[in-house]
Amino acid sequence: MTLDLGVLISGRGSNLQAILDAIAAGKLDARVRLVISNRAGAPGLDRAREAGVPTAVISHKDHPDRASFDAALVGALGQAGASWVVLAGFMRIVTSVLLDAFPARVLNIHPSLLPAFPGVSAQAQALAHGVRITGCTVHLVDAGTDTGPILAQAAVPVLPDDTEERLSERILAREHALLVHVLAAIAAGHLTVHPPTTVAARARVELVGVPGALGVETTND
């Protein structure tokens, strides 16, 4: 099936670019219906415009609370015809208003091997803890902070001379591939969502017929 995507960004939009490039190359059966940024100057908006994708700026500062901000996002996404939402460097915590409008159809890419190092500055957290391997995770979004069901992960070794900047750039390259990998699997019908069986439970997700991870990055350094 062709995925109708709404992509939410806050910055440079490199993961958005990976999606656009994969679509253009015929590697991803999807259409980006709308790119929304909460920041007017986000460079990712230019990436979308260059690809002929509609854009919108919806500032969180123009809304009194998170719920009303998310309601504005839902309205714009619905009008554009999006049925899946990708948080691609979107630096806002979403609420049930957005999640209920797109049940089990909101994805996020996070720069760690969750559940390790959730929240902001995951790369710095990895370095501070002295781990030897970190990476990135694509997961469905739920009401928690980076706690939703994991769809796929890719590992990146932490090198002895890594700085936060160097590690971040190497993880980012893996993010691009992993996000496209997961979206392509969803488009191919390999995503199964099992609804929660109790109020306290949460949805269980399976990606079937495809690898759940892209493996460990290799390096010649």
UniProtKB/TrEMBL annotation:
Coiled coil start-end: none
Top EC category: transferase
Catalytic activity annotation: N(1)-(5-phospho-beta-D-ribosyl)glycinamide + (6R)-10-formyltetrahydrofolate = N(2)-formyl-N(1)-(5-phospho-beta-D-ribosyl)glycinamide + (6S)-5,6,7,8-tetrahydrofolate + H(+)
Keywords: Purine biosynthesis, Transferase
Organism: Polyangium fumosum
Protein name per its UniProtKB record: Phosphoribosylglycinamide formyltransferase
Site entry: Raises pKa of active site His: D146
GO CC annotations, alphabetized: cytosol
